[in-house]
Design a protein that fits this description.
alpha+beta; two-stranded antiparallel sheet; globular; 4 strands
Length: 77
């Protein structure tokens, strides 16, 4: 709750207030590493290792990169 000018109003989180854990992990529980890349979820080893410590913007960027990598892999097949 927030107190503003003596009045109490409920706290309503904005989209930016959401926790990083609200970003769904792209892992599909079928790890298939090819070099530094998991060809199942599209994340790099570094992104996989750091996932739990990443903040929301970092997770969003990692998911976007993973999606692009998977699209590129599908085009080469």
């Amino acid at each position: 709750m927030h107190i503003l000018a003596g009045r109490v109003r409920p706290f309503t989180p904005s989209p930016g207030d959401l926790l990083a854990k609200d970003i769904e992990n792209p892992c599909v529980s079928t790890c298939q590493l090819s070099g530094d890349l998991c060809v199942s979820c599209g994340r790099s080893k570094d992104e996989i290792r750091k996932w739990k410590r990443m903040k929301r913007p970092e997770k969003m960027a990692a998911v976007q990169r993973a999606t692009q990598r998977l699209k590129a892999l599908k085009k080469t097949k």
